[in-house]
Specification:
24 strands, 20% strand, 389 residues, four-stranded antiparallel beta sheet, alpha+beta
Length: 389
């Protein structure tokens, strides 16, 4: 069955606009802003303050109040969050508080529904846009957004189930953050004593082989992303003539000389040769240095600082191989390198798995929410124990 749908206006008793009083160093009343709405909830710690006045006191937030961001960038407008703790904060003028008819709708249920991807998209589509700013007319919002409305007991059971997924996502994010910190802390220990450092040129050599015989085809042209490493190039960005492209073998490195300062360097983890842009710089490690060890070394702040300091160019910074080759690094024995790589790879793999788990939990929650809010999946007393696995 499908739940009956009613206009948002039907479950509201009104809308309050936030205070326009400016943040002040002499303020005594905390104020919630757009950046404090995250993941469907309102964060009420470490808030700026405004001076307290009667008009501000009338806008004090209560537990289970729902805030909506009515004006901001197109990507941020319409964000919704619920206050899930007791607080004495107020809220800024670009936010509105939805006053609910508690006999018709459960606050947690409505906040969860308004936060779904589908509803957020509908809300953003209602906004009027001007360059980088978008605005939502609350009256239009109230009349245009339709809310599925099961009975109050079933609304509460639905919100309980979705909160279990939110809790699992939050917990997994926390684990991911801990492992990420563990990796960044461990990787910063690489480098050893500066007195034993030698130039990178001692451990690597530049690669200049071109794809002159066209043995690498268009399906194997790769690019370097500062976020994702080596990725397949989009067809429209590949030149017609591939003969000038460089050939990158397995475990060798490629980087964009104009973007290495923001991390656009990657080691090929593929088991076959690929082609990369003729504008890229390529190099490989000599036998004294494991490529995987250097790949972790690239994550250190010491390396990033050295790259920035050694770049050349007056208008746009470029880092050629000769610039990179002068960077001093400390390389331990191959045995120590291998044990270090094994340990750091294990931490990084754990981080990747947790990142994948967060994505899967989000996907599960989206699918479950769609079925719950449509009425396709019914919940009863026995369903209250549903939880993510």
């Amino acid at each position: 069955m499908n739940w009956p749908r009613v206009p948002l206006d039907s479950v509201l008793t009104g809308i309050d606009y936030g205070t326009s009083r400016p943040v002040s160093s002499e303020g005594t009343r905390k104020v919630v802003g757009m950046k404090n709405i995250y993941g469907g909830r309102v964060e009420t710690t470490d808030l700026p303050k405004v001076r307290d006045h009667d008009d501000v006191k009338s806008l004090i937030l209560n537990r289970d109040d729902i805030l909506l961001n009515r004006t901001n960038s197109p990507a941020q407008v319409g964000k919704v969050g619920i206050v899930d703790v007791d607080t004495d904060a107020t809220f800024a003028s670009y936010l509105v508080r939805l006053r609910l008819d508690r006999e018709m709708v459960d606050p947690q249920y409505l906040a969860a529904y308004l936060s779904t991807d589908e509803t957020q998209e509908r809300i953003r589509n209602l906004a009027t846009r001007a360059v980088s700013q978008a605005n939502i007319n609350p009256t239009t919002l109230r009349r245009s957004i339709l809310v599925p409305l099961p009975s109050l007991p079933e609304q509460r059971r639905i919100s309980d189930i979705l909160r279990a997924w939110d809790s699992a996502i939050t917990q997994t994010r926390g684990q991911r953050g801990y492992v990420g910190l563990k990796y960044s802390t461990a990787v910063e220990t690489l480098g050893g004593s500066p007195t034993a450092a030698r130039p990178l040129a001692d451990f690597t050599h530049e690669l200049k082989t071109r794809n002159g015989e066209l043995r690498i085809d268009r399906q194997h042209v790769m690019g370097v992303s500062n976020r994702h490493g080596l990725i397949r190039m989009r067809e429209q960005t590949i030149a017609q003539d591939l003969s000038r492209y460089h050939i990158l073998p397995p475990r060798a490195f490629a980087y964009n000389p104009m973007r290495i300062n923001i991390g656009s360097i990657a080691m090929s983890r593929l088991d076959h040769d690929v082609a990369v842009s003729p504008d890229y710089v390529l190099f490989a490690c000599k036998t004294e240095l494991l490529p995987e060890y250097l790949n972790h070394l690239l994550e250190t702040s010491r390396w990033r600082h050295a790259v920035s300091a050694g770049s050349s160019g007056s208008v746009r910074t470029r880092t050629y191989y000769d610039d990179l080759a002068r960077i001093q690094i400390t390389v331990p024995s191959l045995a120590i390198q291998q044990s270090t790589v094994t340990a750091l790879d294990a931490i990084r793999e754990e981080f990747t798995l947790l990142e994948q788990k967060v994505g899967l939990l989000h996907k599960q929650k989206r699918g479950l929410a769609q079925r719950l809010f449509s009425g396709e999946l019914r919940v009863d007393e026995s369903s209250e124990g549903m939880s993510p696995t």
